[in-house]
Amino acid sequence: MSENPFNLEPCLLAITQQEYPRFTDAEYARRHAALGAAMEKHGCDHLLVITDHRAGNAVQWVTGWPGTNEAYVVFKPGVRLTMFMEWFNHVPLGRQLARDVDTHWGEHRGIEKTIEELKRGGAKRVGIMGPLVVGKYKKLEQQFDMVSLDADYVRLRMIKSAEEIDWLRIGGAMSDAGYAALLAGTRPGLNERELGALVESAYVKHGGTNMIHYIGVTSMAQPHRFVPAQYPSTRPVQKGDVVFCELSAFWWDYAGQILRTFFVDAEPTPLYRDLHATAEAAFDAVTKVVKHGTTMAEILAAADVVEQNGFTICDDLMHGFGGGYFQPIIGSRSRPAGPLPKMTLEENMTVVVQPNVTTIPAVSGDNVGRAGVQVGELIRVTKTGFEKLHRTPR
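and the corresponding structure tokens:
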């Protein structure tokens, strides 16, 4: 086995070779200071950071512990963190991974134990970050003045630190490896489930985990799919098929995202050649305007090449990524993604540009015979342009 299977730079390789990778003390100090500032803005004396029913990544961002089933972290600036977690057999690893945290078993009544801890600290006005089922939230509301800080958390995740960008580069390299395995291994007779296994085989043995591998396979002559499928089918790959995909491999909480299209034992038909050329042109036009300060109107205008060539899109044209699915979420003029966000791009935002160019259905909502391709990848916004976080050629 290669000691550097993804050809990572030495500083990135060193991160992957730790027993359990960890950000620096300075990075956690930055995050905790940002949490303290959010609390001060909302007049909160304590903050509760939540993972519940395997949902919510704020606990991992604050402590380094991925959360598994349930984790409730009590945070107050200058005070050692306390966490109640499930299950009992998860506690040993939780204590190893959670940084500077007093970690306890929740005893299947974690929210009650969390309330006791908040009362012990004299909590009155408690901020909350992360999802929580209604019944548990009501128990907190009965004891404290509760304030949602979810919007503040999203804002903190939208702008990446230098260390976070390094971890995204690792996730990007693993996602690239998944695509390389898919491209090399696809052949007539395999079904979409087996294609997914090809993708994951490239990174799981090196510490990566699957976020998504959405894969679409259809005949170019008689297309029945125009956007990658979220769940695989048993349809076998055939000569003359088009394969298009959206792949994200996690390096812990940091995933890349690569979107590509290729053809099986055949040249693309004129229609698919035009679709793919339009998707490439849209990617180039959008990334040409990307930089710190770019407006949403500029991005939308850059994507007009799609409609000018007689096509539309299905998937979002652009979205924020890295710790969540963030704004700016933008479609095109023929397929808006809701109102244009009232914002501009900022340095060290990470976004996916992903033109899923498709034919226009003859009747609204009629997708019979509709064809499409997928192109794109995760990039970092810089002061004057963008940085690619993937190495796979388009």
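(Above: one complete record from the training split.) The chain has two domains: 25-158, 162-388.
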